[in-house]
């Protein structure tokens, strides 16, 4: 082997090494950009702390706060999301929390009847949203958003509201995963985690939104099949008109 062949081999090895290094750097840069975008959307800072708010199972009381199995799975999904962003989390039941919003990223699972923290956020930011649950006297399970009712069809379709509350340029967002059932809560959590890039592209990283989804055939497909219904931000933000005061007859 002459010196020219050796030199060509050296150049080939060096070129391969440089190409491999550049490819690794490019992949590392892309991973970092994806991570930065995820952190920006969820308000999860490296080394920061997130709050995961636990609901109680439908029908349980304040003295017997049982957590539904699917809500536990939802908390596990959210804890994995937080760790992916190199942050920490605190898990607390809703009735034990006495603090405002914006100091840390927050994730509330469950509707207003199962999660007092969700109820407070909805009253403050989305007064046009109401949930009537099946364990109440009406025996219905429906969302009322503005003038529209979205009634659960058992085994056919459940609804879940995914909402983000933005708190100025310095505050961190609060996310609401408000389902009609624990299965729809889990479907909402999984969709939020899976589709955050699409949501970020559509709504940015600093806006408030409320999106309604339908979970199809939950008895057969569990939380796996979910479809978009409508952007209900405006309807949910508008407080219902006050009921007219009856005029006493003379």
Q: How would you portray this structure in words?
A:
By secondary structure, this protein is of the alpha/beta class. It has one domain (43-237): Chitobiase/beta-hexosaminidase domain 2-like (Chitobiase, domain 2, 2-Layer Sandwich), CATH 3.30.379.10. 38% of the residues lie in helices and 23% in strands. The protein has a 7-stranded mixed sheet with strand order 2-1-3-8-7-9-10, sandwiched between helices. Strands 4-5-6 form a 3-stranded antiparallel sheet. Helix 2 (69-84) runs parallel beside helix 4. The protein is globular, with a radius of gyration of 24 Å.
Terminal Cα span: 117 Å
Class per helix and strand makeup: alpha/beta
Q: Roughly what percent helix? A: 25-40%
Molecular shape: globular
- Topology as H/E string? HEHEEHEEEEEHHEHEH
List the domain count as a whole number. 1
Described by its quaternary structure, the protein is single chain
Please describe the biggest sheet, giving its number of strands, its sense, and whether it closes into a barrel.
7 strands, mixed
The gyration radius over C-alpha positions equals 24 Å
**Extended strand count:** 10
Q: Beta-strand percentage?
A: 15-25%
* Low-confidence sequence ranges: none
- CATH C-level name: Alpha Beta
Number of H/I helices: 7
Question: Which CATH architecture is right?
Answer: 2-Layer Sandwich
CATH superfamily: Chitobiase/beta-hexosaminidase domain 2-like
Question: Which fold name fills CATH's third level, the topology?
Answer: Chitobiase, domain 2
Mean pLDDT across residues? 84
Strands ordered across the widest β-sheet: 2-1-3-8-7-9-10
């Amino acid at each position: 082997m002459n010196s020219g062949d050796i030199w060509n081999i050296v150049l080939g090895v060096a070129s391969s090494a440089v190409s491999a290094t550049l490819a690794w750097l490019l992949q590392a840069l892309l991973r970092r950009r994806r991570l930065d975008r995820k952190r920006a959307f969820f308000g999860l800072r490296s080394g920061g702390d997130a709050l995961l708010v636990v609901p109680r199972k439908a029908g349980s009381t304040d003295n017997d706060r049982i957590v539904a199995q699917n809500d536990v799975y939802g908390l596990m999904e959210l804890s994995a999301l937080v760790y992916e962003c190199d942050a920490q989390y605190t898990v607390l039941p809703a009735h034990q929390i006495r603090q405002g919003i914006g100091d840390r990223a927050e994730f509330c699972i469950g509707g207003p009847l199962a999660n007092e923290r969700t109820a407070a956020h909805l009253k403050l930011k989305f007064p046009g949203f109401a949930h009537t649950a099946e364990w109440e006297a009406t025996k219905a399970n429906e969302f009322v958003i503005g003038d529209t009712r979205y009634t659960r069809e058992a085994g056919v379709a459940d609804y879940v509201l995914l909402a983000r509350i933005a708190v100025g340029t310095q505050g961190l967002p609060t996310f609401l995963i408000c389902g009609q059932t624990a299965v729809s809560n889990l479907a909402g959590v999984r969709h939020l985690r899976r589709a955050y890039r699409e949501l970020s592209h559509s709504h940015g990283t600093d806006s408030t939104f409320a999106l309604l989804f339908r979970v199809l055939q939950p008895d057969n497909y569990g939380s796996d099949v979910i479809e978009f219904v409508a952007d209900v931000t405006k309807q949910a933000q508008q407080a219902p008109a006050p009921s007219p005061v009856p005029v006493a007859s003379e």
